[in-house]
Amino acid sequence: MNLKSIAECERRNLEKMKRYRLPFGYKKIGILVIMISIIGIIINKTSIDDNLFAQVGKYGILLGLVLISLSKEKIEDELVISLKMQAYTFAFVISVILTLTNPLFTYIASIIANKPMDIFKGMGDWQILWLLLSIQLFYFEFLKRMSR
Amino acid sequence: MKNSIKIERAILGITQEDLALKIGVSRQTISSIEKNRYIPSTLLALRLSQLFTKPVNAFFELEQEDEVLI
């Protein structure tokens, strides 16, 4: 196999990866995983004081969001793919802006609550990923409705 | 870019749903193209051309702001 054919093979694999989406049914599985995770976190907060529920719940919410985000629509055509890409870009930019302005919001909150807060504590990695995927999903739904 | 897909569709006497099925997209995509909200890919434009038995520039037309100054 020469260098050119290796490069061509790599390019084809990358193209396949780029287009890969989970089947439509995974959307429902994603929603179910999120619901179970939220119930687990609520149970952890109210009755069972076991940190394991909260930890598994954190992973569960992220897994659920990824499953919804990566699953196909009923009819996945080029318009849907284009709207999804727009939503990913929008979500990324908004997440960066929110992360950058987070100290300002924390500062305002500390003034309103009259309580000292660590303004540079920032958002955790989990919160940023949840935020990014949630914005992507909501903005995609919004774009879909707008294009009707 | 403007288009006359709606007219071409009327000539063939087919609905948005029918056209969508024939070229393998959703009705929403046809509606977006007809309203000039979405510019389809070359592949989709060629599929439309095949269906309407007309060249692509018979139903897609560049507007003044789209034209490149040479």
Structural account:
The complex is a heterodimer of chains A (148) and B (70). Chain A is an all-alpha fold. Chain A is built from five helices and no strands. The termini of chain A are far apart. The mean pLDDT of chain A is 88. Chain B is 50% helix and 6% strand. Chain B has a two-stranded antiparallel ribbon with strand order 1-2. The two termini of chain B are 18 Å apart.
Give a short summary of the structure:
With 148 residues, chain A is mainly α.
Number of strands of chain A: 0
Helical percent range of chain A? over 70%
Order of helices and strands of chain A: HHHHH
> How much β-strand is present in the residues of chain A?
under 5%
Oligomer: heterodimer
Q: How much strand content do the residues of chain B show? A: 5-15%
Q: Give a short account of the largest sheet of chain A.
A: none
The largest contact between protein chains, plus residue counts on each side, is: A-B, 9 and 13 residues
Q: Got a strand count of chain B? A: 2
Main sheet characteristics of chain B = 2 strands, antiparallel
Notable characteristics:
heterodimer, A: 148 residues, mainly alpha, 5 helices, 78% helix, 0% strand, B: 70 residues, two-stranded antiparallel ribbon, globular
Topology of helices and strands:
The complex is a heterodimer of chains A (about 150) and B (about 70).
Chain A: H1 3-19, H2 26-46, H3 51-70, H4 78-113, H5 125-146
Helix pairs in contact in A: 2-3, 3-5, 4-5
Chain B: E1 2-3, H1 5-12, H2 16-23, H3 27-34, H4 42-52, E2 60-61
Antiparallel strand pairs in B: 1-2
Helix pairs in contact in B: 2-3
